[in-house]
Amino acid sequence: MLATIRANTRTHVIGDRRHAKKKCLWFFVCLIPFLASSAIAGWGDPVHFGCENLKMAVEDELGVFDPTEEDMQWLTSISHKECFDSRDQLDAGDCENAITDLSGLEYAHNLKSMDFHLNKISSIGPLANLTKLKDVRLGRNYIHDLGPLRNLTRLSHLDVHGNGLSDLSPLSGLTQLETLQLRWNNIKDLSPLSGLINLTELHIYGNGLSNISPLSGLTNLTTLYIYDNEISSISALSGLTNLSHIGAQNNQISDISPLAGLSNLSILHLDGNRISDISPLAGLTSLTRLHLRYNPLAPQACDIFPQIIANNPGIYFKYDPCLSQYGLTISSSSGGSVTTPGEGVFEYGYETPVSVTATAHSNNHFVNWTGTAATAGIIENLSNPSITITVDRNYTLKANFVNDQAGSPSLSTYQAKDVTETSARLEAYLEDDGEEACDGWFRYWIKDRQSQTERSTSKDYPLHKSQLYAKEVYSLLPGTTYNYQAIAENSYGQVKGNTREFTTLEDVIHVDDDAVSDPAPTNLLISDPQEDGTANHPYDSIQEAIEHAQDLDKIVVHEGRYYETLNLMGKRLEIEGANPGASDIAAYPVIDAKQEGTVVTFNHGENPECVLTGLVLTGGLHDTSGAIACIGASPTIRNCLIAGNCGTGPTGAIIYAENSHSLFENITVYGNASKGSGSAFRFADSDALITNSILWNHGLTEIAVASGHNPLV
Predict the structure, then answer these.
(1) Are strands 135-137 and 460-463 parallel, antiparallel or unpaired?
(2) Which residue did the predictor score with more confidence, 138 or 325?
(3) Is residue 146 a contact partner of residue 125, using CB atoms and an 8 Å limit?
(4) What residue spans define the domains of the chain?
């Protein structure tokens, strides 16, 4: 009876439309009476939603309370913008109506579009099997992993802006995408987009990008927004002749010749770059809007402006006024003056080099230069009182001095010594202690981050005239540039020496089979008793280095032949052999498995941050994977030679990938063999990427696909 009452109540809620859907579903059930009862068990039970706000959004869309799995089949579109207002706020913040969990949506098998912009969603796992989705809008959430979208191959519109994303690899197979919104993330690598040939609109601004070369093949693009990045080259755009809208302002672009052949360009924004030559724009005839402000345009640009206007009637054109002379305004603080060329406003022709010298008055010393010339980055050393600058726009320049109080000391900062990965020795020379002995110490900080990272050493006392003093600093970050400055002080005053910099060594683990400290070179059974992975006491086994390494460590393998097999143990490591630019292949370290198994195995979930590069892999012997096995793992393999390996099984491969999204880049697979009908690559349920690689002289099938997607080659 309760079930009957519930059914009647639900029918009243949804009305005739719901009744019609019920009839259709009963008709469908009648067509398939052979369905097992287990297959439809729970079909009429309410779906469990992980978020009450999502449940209410689904109920509003369906007009049904407590929707069942059966009801969810009628859900084709859904949106939820309860936290959105007209100001397009950037974060859901404390919005109590925000959706936080998509659990329950996985039953909406007919869902085609969804708009959950500005919510608090962090996982999109429930979308993984909703393969009818065409339009997904998830901007301004907390999503860091796009993996669940990997199989949604019908997607034509995707908006995931403002999520803090960095990895786009799950999008590489979504070739039906036409519109893609990726703005305001942390994306640095666009290579996964290189095969999305149906893209017509791409928004990737505000990511700190420097390389857009993967876009060179996207010939259907009509709209591209790449502004607020760190892009210097736009050569990738030269063949994208369908482009009509480009937003590239606030980058580091100087050469715009790739735009010369884009005859369909209508809107072009190039403000705030480093462009001096605009002649490539002279032949464009479809422009309706062109912005060129805040560029160091050459005087010749003034002759091209009229041509651009004539070729594009009615164009809205914004540019800075033409100047034949540029002003350099020079000033100084008290305690000194600029003696060359003096102080005041000076006019110079475009790109005129100007020598400028600041001279301190008695009992004062020069500190640094400030002004727009300093912030523009055209002064090599701001603490040098004698500089040369090139005038390519209007600049201001100010010399700053400080007073040396009578009786105070004077000193010079010396170059740092004994720099390691995490420590350095700072030195200074006390030229004069003034009227009395003084304290001496150092301050140091990460370059360009002084306010957040500055630290000081302990003080030495007493220090006297003509004395060298030094301090060891520890706990530094590997591979990081630091600034430092010596300081001396007595009761008469404090003075600061010149600012210098040093860069700590990269934190790497060394492997060398015949190091000087190894008592038995090439013998893995006898090792240096002090081996610890440092350059002086390297490990003599690569696997030993892997076992001692931590996530994100770098292992450098020195020249030699290493008789072993490797397992990366799920660690995110970069294992580097020879430099890929090395001209002599003998410089590449060799890993020789001696026919005792697969040379390198990745089977603990390794991701693309696990990198193998600059190595020769040989001597592998295995029934399915002679050289490399990627099982449930997606490493990056680049700049490697894979030769002299054998797959012994009936379908044995040299490189085998299962449930893998690996990247194989700049590799050569040469002279391998198989005892069956084998292949160089064999993929099962994988969508790997093979790029710029050579498969040669082994008599094997190049690529075999057991199941799943074909690799992208």
Answers:
(1) unpaired
(2) 138
(3) no
(4) 1-41, 44-176, 188-322, 326-403, 411-503, 508-707
